[in-house]
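Full entry
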Amino acid sequence: MRIEVVYALPQGAIQRSYDLPIAATVGDALRAASADPAFAGIDLDGSPIGVFGTHARREQPLHPGDRVEIYRPLALDPKAARRVRVEQARTLRGARGKKP
């Protein structure tokens, strides 16, 4: 069966298709990707993974056409990013309210 393995990067994505046996698992797909030079340097063992956007276990069976996604760490925690945006908005509002 044919499946895809993808890894998103800020400048683009790595996307490869592999032919695996019918009883293949997510772990089998990751092993196939680890042998591909395109995925060199990516922590396939420690990265969170999913299938079509849903968290997946490595022992989860695959179906023909599945897309295994390798997730990279967030650049900034979403809560911390929101705090920064709120603080910037407060600073901007405060600067507008002051008269020279």
About this structure: The chain has one domain: 2-74. The mean pLDDT is 88.
